Automatic annotation (TrEMBL):
GO terms for molecular function: aldehyde dehydrogenase (NAD+) activity; dihydroflavanol 4-reductase activity. Keywords: Oxidoreductase. Residues 2-232 form the NAD-dependent epimerase/dehydratase domain. Its EC number is 1.1.1.219. One of its GO terms (cellular component) is cytoplasm. It holds the Pfam family Epimerase. The keyword tRNA processing does not apply. This is Dihydrokaempferol 4-reductase. The keyword Oxidoreductase applies. The lineage of its organism: Bacteria, Pseudomonadati, Bacteroidota, Flavobacteriia, Flavobacteriales. It comes from Flagellimonas maritima.
Amino acid sequence: MILVTGGTGLIGSHLLFQLLNKSKRLRACYRSKDSINNVLAVFGYYSDNASSLLKKIEWVEADITDIVSLQEAFKDVEYVYHCAAKISFDPKDYPALVKNNIEGTANIVNLCIEHHVKKLCYVSSIAAVGHSINGGKVDENNEWSNTNVSVYGLTKHEAELEVWRGSQEGLPAVIVNPGVVLGPGFWNTGSGTFFKYASKGKKSYIPGGTGFVSINDVINAMIQLMESKVEKERFILVNQNLSYETLLKKIAPKLGVVSPTKKISFLALEIFWRIDWLRSNLLGKRRRLSKNMAKGLYKREVYSSEKIKKAIDFSFEDLDNAIDFCCTKFLER
């Protein structure tokens, strides 16, 4: 039996689909029954039998911050993919991020040890990887620093430490650190917002850039790592390092709109994060741009995925094809 936490999210739902194609026995956690509709929608992008596939999954209502609900989920489980996490870059959400990302991961690790799970795959993020040195590429060996790190990155780093703690206690485990994951189905959050933003024909784009990877590459890497003898290792998953300008110029024509041409200045960003801070404190609104996020745009990190390529002879798919697929599904939504 395989357990997938965060099964109703972007990575979790695609992972479930691929594991079903391998005829695996699956159990997945959910917190709201309505969220299972997200999985049905994702399955529908790839299959005409989405409903019948969904019925093959054993769904368990469980919260990773609640040990009692998780106990039932872990019954007879041999392998665990821990995809569940809270994603927010708003400093006000730090306590919730700690509870979900750090304490929740500690619960998963402890239950894996208690139930003698054969292997754990933890989905972290490039936000939890150290900064580059002298402008070089970032890899798995870069030293961690708290400087200009988002609250999300801080908690994902601490969550990784819980996984390493578990590995020291005898739990076979691997960690993946994906870049921005491009995949269909969640257009109002995460990478989906790039497609939504581009579809409006916006004229401006933010400076900087980051590492991008397709959802298929993330899922394939996770499954291959779990089926390999590799353990006690972490792997950056980045196919291409792109500027946000380049990404939007790839997306916009596929959506039938004009690409943005005006770069938002760093001065404008400095003004905006201060106004955003004031707006949040006076009106209680969610932050859209924190100080650390704005500062992070000044320096563009370039990520290396050479380790995953060598470890399991992994090959990334054509990212342009993945972007085209997302654009097609966005227009069909």
